[in-house]
Each structure stands twice: as C-alpha cells, then as structure tokens.
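Table S2 (text version). Query chain:
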Amino acid sequence: MEFRVLKYFLAVAREKNISKAAKSLHLSQPTLSKQLKELEEELGVTLFERGNREIRLTEEGLFLLSRGNEILNLVEKTTINLRKDEVVTGEIYVGGGETRAMSLIAKVTKRMMDDYPEIKLYLYSGNADDVMEKLDNGLLDFGVVVNPTNKQKYKSISLPQTDKWGLLVRSNHFLAENEAITPEDLRGVPLLISQQRLVSDQISEWFGNNLDQLHIVGSYNLLYNASLMVEEGVGCALCIDGIINTTNTSLIFVPLKPELDASLSLIWKKNQTMSIAATKFLDKLKAE
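Corresponding structure-token output:
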C-alpha cells in the first residue's frame, strides 16, 4: 500500500463524499474512484458502502481509518526528526497519566525550549496501558507511568516524585470528616477505581487482597470525569492526590491509612533509535 493512496482513502473517509475528496486532493473523480477500487482489490476487502449522497465506512474501513492515521502520523514524526540542521529541531512525544510528575516534564520542556526554540512537545494523556500501547506502536518517545507497571520491554529511570493515594469524596459525605480512610471505612461505600489493572492490584493488596468486598460501581482512566461523578453522588473515587483542585469546591481528598504511595518512572522502548531532540530531552531529565 502506497502512502499516497492511503492519504486518498483518509481524505474520502473525512469528506464522506468522493467528489468533495477529489476536489480537495486536486484529482478527477474517476481517478480517485479507480485508486480506491484498486486499494480494495489489493487488500481484498470492501472499505466503503456507497450511497447516493455520502459513503459510509465498513468495519474494515473503520479499522484502516484508525491505523491509517497512526501510520501517517508516525511517518511525519519520523521525517521531521530525521531532518538535520545547524540547530536542534524536531518533535518530542510524551505520554502520561494524571500525576504531579508532569510538572517535572514541564520544567525540563521549558529548559529545552529555551535552549532549542525549534523543539516542539506533544503530550498524550492516558493511563499506563494506553501509554505503553502508543510506545509499542512508535507513536510516543517517552511515557510517564505510575508504578507498579510491567516495564520488562522498556528502559526506564525513576522520577523523584511520589504520588499519594486517597479517596475523593463530596464535602457532605460522612467520610469527609475523617483524617484518613482505612480499609474498614470503605466497606459498603460506592467506589470508582482506576481502569489500570496493576493499580487495581495495588489497591487490592492494600485492602487485603479481596476487592470483592468493595462496592465498585464504576472505573475511570482519567480522573476529571470521575470527579464529576463524585460531585453528583454516584460514588467516591480512589485516586491520587493533587490531580483535582478541591479548593473552594464541594470535593475533599482524604488520604488512605496505612499510607499508600506510588513511585513514578519515565519509560521508553528498548533498542529504539532516538531522535536528537529526544536524546537531549532525556539528558536534561537525567540531570535534574
């Protein structure tokens, strides 16, 4: 499959109309139709359901749309970072969950941009599972993950920050007056927990290796939306401190007892060739 033809497909998927797509690509409609037909024949699948006014993607077409965008983004990222000029240029892609450690990433990024104004940073937000998938696909240079995380496939360095776990509750909740939350306090309380499997294992260990005794009503991958559920009384959220600003709000963060802290790591793929920009970023981070 040629990148050129993949771009044609993505344009048609975006416009949902071959005529409009052909116009945006500066091609004739017959030429574009022929290219799409040859693409379907090459792949052995039907990518479009053609209607009178617009076309719809088949299940195979939706899959190619998802992968096609990732492929072209990776090609563009690689091309930009291969360019060599007298000044350091390029793009750095960092993924991470909601953690205070991102303040360190921000600090290092500021220093990078002061030294190399042509550098650009792109952030992706997601939990460790999301971040590692992007790393494996070559769409991220680095990931900031909350431990425990399976890092066998990656190189890593420990970050100096630690995150503290606790319970996000409404100010009128009966647990809001507690100085700390014990495992016994959580029995029967509707809870929202992180979708990250290894984090759930950590919470389970803190609780006594039996999550079945908890009343789990839902899960989340990023905390902001979960905090809206807490505000509405859907449940309380087991989460990391400092992610949601509770000042002058109806929410309160109460730490766990015994304390449950999480260390943090920066990870990247083993045996990958880093761009000059990514290498300098890592050097600056190690120097902190």
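Notes on Table S2: The chain has three domains: 3-82, 90-160+264-287, 162-262. The radius of gyration is 24 Å.
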